[in-house]
Design a protein that fits this description.
This protein is α+β, with helices and mostly antiparallel strands. It has two domains: about 40 residues; about 170 residues, no CATH class. The chain has two helices and eight strands, in the order αββββββββα. It has an eight-stranded antiparallel β-barrel. The radius of gyration is 24 Å and the shape is elongated. The termini are far apart.
Length: about 220
């Protein structure tokens, strides 16, 4: 075991350790500050068309899409919300446009995104490879107004998706990872959603008008 024999040795040790402590403190303080900034960007409306999953024989004119509302993201990256997944079939019969609703269901979820530090530099928002990418998970649940005294989140899980968040593009990619309950409503195995930016952002506007036409929504 090493012995410290003089004040000079103590001083030398302090001079070595202090910069390391300051560096670690600076890293974690910066990470905490920047993570809060990142998580504050997550809340909002997201939308996108999806691949139809309907098994009906006549697949002409089928439209499928999701509108997702993420809210209450905390400083650790946990969030919650709902998304509406719908499919319809639009046909032109005798010059009349007829819409047939195939499915429309609202799904409750919670999730988490993980923050990591990136080197600060100029990034083109529409170049995928320049985007900062963050990973996470989304869990679809039966409900969030659970029985408080006997609470076990595992009892409410239906399915789990992996998330990739492309920050500059404000885009979320979801890939089905695990199904916890076979009796859950069928959902796409993979889908991509784009954040709403203004009243006329096309992905949200188009999904709402094409897939959810005729539906009364309160977005």
């Amino acid at each position: 075991m090493c012995k410290i024999n003089s004040l000079k040795e103590v001083s030398d040790i302090i001079s070595i350790v202090t910069p390391l402590i300051l560096l670690i403190w600076f890293y974690y303080s910066q990470k905490q500050r920047l993570s809060k900034s990142y998580f504050s960007e997550i809340d909002g409306l997201y939308a996108g068309f999806t691949e139809p999953i309907s098994t009906i024989e006549d697949k002409t004119g089928i439209n499928s899409g999701i509108i997702m509302n993420i809210r209450d993201t905390d400083d650790s990256g946990f969030f919650k919300g709902e998304f509406d997944f719908a499919e319809n079939q639009i046909k032109l019969i005798n010059d009349n446009i007829l819409t047939r609703n195939i499915r429309d269901g609202i799904h409750t979820f919670f999730g988490k995104l993980d923050f990591k530090l990136y080197i600060s530099k100029s990034r083109h928002p529409f170049r995928l490879r320049e985007n900062r990418v963050y990973n996470g998970s989304l869990y679809i649940v039966d409900r969030l107004d659970f029985s408080f005294d006997n609470y076990k989140i595992e009892d409410y899980l239906c399915a789990e998706y992996k998330i990739k968040h492309f920050r500059e593009m404000q885009t979320l990619k979801f890939i089905l990872k695990k199904v916890y309950r076979k009796d859950r409503p069928e959902l796409p195995k993979e889908f991509i959603l784009y954040k709403k930016m203004g009243a006329s952002f096309e992905p949200y506007k188009n999904v709402k008008e094409v897939v959810f036409r005729g539906n009364t929504r309160s977005d």
